Amino acid sequence: MHLKKVEIRGFKSFADKIEIDFEEGITAIVGPNGSGKSNISDAIRWALGEQSVKTLRGNKMEDIIFSGTDKRKALGYAEVNIIFDNKDGIIPIDYQEVAITRRMFRSGESEYYLNKNSCRLKDIREILMDTGIGKDGYSIVGQGKVDEILSSRPEDRRNIFEEAAGIVKYKSKKEEAEKKLEKTQENLIRIKDIIIELEKQTEHLKEQSEKANVFLQLSHRLKNLEVNIYIRDIKRIDEELKLIQREIENFAEDMGKKKKEKDEIESKFNLMKTRIDEIDLNIDKVQREKIELLNRLNENKNNIKILEEKRKFYIKDVDRINKDIIDLKMHMKELIRKSKDFDMEILDDKKLLETLKFSFEQKNAELNKTNDQMQLEEIDIEKEKNKLITFYNGIMEIKGKINNLESFEENIYKRIYQLEKEISTLEIAIKEYKQSLEKIEQLEIKKNDLIVSYNKSITNYRLKDDNYKNQLDNIYRKLNNNKVELQGKISNYNLLKNMQEDYEGYFKSVKNLMIAYKKDEILNGKLVGLVADLISVEERYEKAVDVALGGSLQNVVTWDEEDAKFIIEYLRKNNLGRVTFLPLTTIRGSTININSKDREDLKIIGLGSELVKYNVKYKNIVEYLLGRTIVVEKLDDATSVASRFNYRYRIVTLEGDIINTGGSMTGGSMNRSSGNLLNRGYRLGKLKNEINDLTEIQRKLEREKKDIQLKQEENIKQLAQYEELLQSLNIEIVKLENQKNNIANQMKNANDSIFKCKEEISKLNQELKDIEQEKEDLKSKSNIYEIENQNIKSNIEILMEQFESIKEIKEMLVKEVTDLNIQINLLENKLLNKEEKKCSIQQELEDLKVLIEKKKIELKNLTNEIENTDILMDSTNENIDKLVALEEDKDKQLNFLQNKRSEGMKDYYIHQNQLKKVNDDLNQLEKIKNKYEVKEAKNMVQLENIKLRLKEDYELSFQEALDLWIEIDNMDKAVLEVKKLQEDIKGLGNVNLNSIEEYKASRDRLEFLTKQKDDLLAAKANLKKVIKDMDKKMEEQFLISFNEIRDNFNQIFSTLFHGGKADLILEDEDNILTCGVEIKAQPPGKKLQNLSLLSGGEKSLTAVALLFAIIQTKPTPFCILDEIDAALDEANINRYTNYLKSLSNNTQFIIITHRKSTMEIADILYGVTMEEEGVSKIISVKLTDDLDEIAS
């Protein structure tokens, strides 16, 4: 078997579909960092069922789907298809080629396929178990897997050995078997509890079925007698009914005549009423019309007032507008006068402006001539200044050189001073270095003393840690024991609760009713509850009260008689069986009055009703059931009590023996370890308390555990602190040694520095003599430049005097030109301002003309409005006159109609009195007739009640009952016999007729469950044997494989390290299947030590040796090595590749690598590149390519 092909689409950076074909031997996958090489191994690991997002190098599972780039959209799913060549049948399915496919969508939905058929992850894991390709296998090894082998706990490290040993499948089957065993144990506990309850129930049903047979015999005789009594009563009532019905018919005939007379009077009365109603309608109509006329009249009067106000307003506006027009014309005359004044002023200003402009041009010409003279003088002055600057620069240059020399001289003096000071400082430092060496040596002695002290403290804290571990082990043991007990209590509680909720142990009919009550809303509020649920009793009285109540525990309490009748009908309609009901409104309890002396003498514990607890509203129910039952301790006490009261009451002992009314006795052994139905509520409460107590104990133990863990953590912190301090001290001692070496070096350097400083001072003194000679030469040259500089300054002063004279003339001309220019500008602005004002006056004159025209139009409109208002007022006054005339007509019509109505009302009252008299006669006849109808109804109800009792008691109609009719000579004797039969039946107490069938069904079920229990016990024993056999086989197989891996590991380690030795050690050889695996390694020249003490390179090579040992022991069909050679140096890499080559004969290797040496052993090379950012691509690489270039 080998890996044949991998197809990837949408997985991580593989946006496009890629296919990689693999051959046997070694295939290398190469490429630069970040190109997506390791995504290939992640894809294969994911397709084989990896569920850990961390292992797949992501934050959430959705991260494995291509998330898109700047140029590409994100994909909606990822898919990887792995194809295996299975010709050798290593994968246990009948296919020579096996394809495993996994597809995942962004919604989180995952799909698995095996040869394109949908399957479960579990199916894939099962076929790959013990092939080395499983979840904990060694077929895909990355740097993370190497780290896991190196750093994981010994007990976690064993997974890879189990895969190599081929026991994973057995381990999986063992876990399944253990789960089955646990389930079997739970079923066994449940079935045992049910059997115990069922045995109690069966015993109880047996007693009830015997009582039921007696009840049936008595009931049959009672039925015959009662049915015949009912038939006699029905016939008698039927005769009485016929007489009553004849009287009712006579009264009905008299009432008919009276009703006819009433109808005639009513007809005339209604006719009169109709006429009066018509008159009332006409009166209402005329009144409405009159109101409408009045509204219109008021409206016209209001309109007149409004029009008058409008006319006054219009006249005021006409006066106002005439006044506005006069004012506007006066304003126009004033504006025309102002316009003429502005024309005269503008003409004078223009003449003055021409004179000023002429003067300005003359003065400006003189100013230009003066400027030319000044420029010539400035040129001569500039030439002399340039000469002066040249000589001045020469002087400054000489002074600068002298200053530089003086500055250099000063720096030399400073340097000499610094060197002398440095020599002094170094001499002091040498003394201090000697003192520091002495102090460091003393400090080393103190540090070593502290190391001894810290070692003692570390030993104490380690002893404390061992003590805390022992305490925790003890608490874990208690927690486990308490947990087992708690689970047992919870299981019993749930079982009993389920029985309570399912009404297990109740009669079938009672069970049917209670289930229907929960489901059917029609029964809502009709039931109070079962007797068993409404009372409670102390544990010592349970058996006595249970026996005393018997089947009455299953009686149903209702609020009243109607509810009971309703539910009985419901039971009948739905064929749910028969149930006994105790209505709160009809049941009347009674108790026996026993004086205290009799109670003491006869050792009476109490009446049954006194020993139970209940709500006071159920007092009648409890006293009805238990008020005449006496409870005593023993049977001897019971016989004494029965004899004392002449066997009139039922006596019950605490052991459950009974002396019945009349003297019969019931007793013997009882399989009644608990209070059956009566005890369920108490047992549930007790179990709940026990569960709460155990839960509190669990919490207390958890708190203790947490306290110890906190102390342990604190102890570990202290231990870590001391270990850290110890480590710090060791580091400090190393540092002190380094300081000593540093100080010695510093002393040597200080002496060397003193010699160099003295040598430099000698050179600096010679330089000072040379600088003094150069300063003297520069001072002589500076004196010559000073004489030439004075002559040039004299020439510049003469030229400056001439320039100032011309400058004064220029300034005078500039002032005159500026003044003329200001006068011209002011005059121009003044002229412009006057012209603008003149234009504004012209525009205002035009606006006034337009406004006067608008006012004239407005005046004309107002005159028209006044004329229109006058016309409208005349029209409105005419309307008012017409409306006043119409109002007078309506008043006349109203007077006529009201007189006509008064005459009609007189006839109306006469017919009303006649109708009242006829109604009184009818009511009297109705009362007499009703009396007879009541009698009829009572008899009919009585008749129906008797027929209903026939139906309810015996399910017979009257016609069916006639078939049972027999002539009874003495009816009084029959009535007495009925009473006696009823008392005998009542003496039987509550009878469960279903108990005959229920007893048989319960007995059959008990036999069936007993057989089931035997089957479960057999299955339990078988599962234990299977688990034991598997443990033995796994131990043998694991040991064989482990020892072979151990030998191979030592041999390969020695080969890879060129010597040394390594070993694998089981932590607990007495517990092979769960103990951890320790790795010991001894590289050449070192001691045998734990893996954690090796260097990074040694650890990696050791892990590689272990991996090769496992593969050599049980070769995996293929193996992917993802950059596990990264930590190996060049020497180790060659050993690694040589051994890898030798293993490739039996195992197909796919190597992801950067290393040239690893690439060289590959038969095929694939390159992964990222030409497009964020998208990986596979390219073929020829083996002739430069491997250095490929690796980069």
Written account of the structure:
It is built from 21 helices and 25 strands. The two termini are 34 Å apart. It is α+β, with helices and mostly antiparallel strands. Helix 17 packs across helix 18. It has a six-stranded antiparallel beta sheet with strand order 2-1-4-5-6-7. The longest helix is centred in the N-terminal third of the chain and has 335 residues.
Structure described in brief:
It contains 21 helices and 25 strands. It is of the alpha+beta class and 1192 residues long. Strands 2-1-4-5-6-7 form a six-stranded antiparallel sheet. Strands 8-22-23-3-24-25 form a six-stranded mixed sheet. The protein has a five-stranded mixed sheet with strand order 13-15-16-17-18, with helices on both faces.
